[in-house]
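Example 3.2
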Amino acid sequence: MDEYRVALIGIIVHNPEAVDELNSLLHEYSQYIIGRMGVPYRERGLSIISVALDAPNDTISALAGKLGMIEGVSSKTTFPKA
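Structure, written as tokens:
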């Protein structure tokens, strides 16, 4: 069994049309999500979302890869120091 890790994914949505696909993807991984916070930045037309996860490394990598394929979404994953 894979070892679970804590990770934080920072997401910036700069295309409002990508929100449905993004939410669907996050719902698919909801069993691993500890918490999620979204902040609309209307002045810039962006949404900023942070997602805290506790999941196997392969699962975190898969989610990060799928996020990277959504048009209009940028993301970055970070892990605590070992």
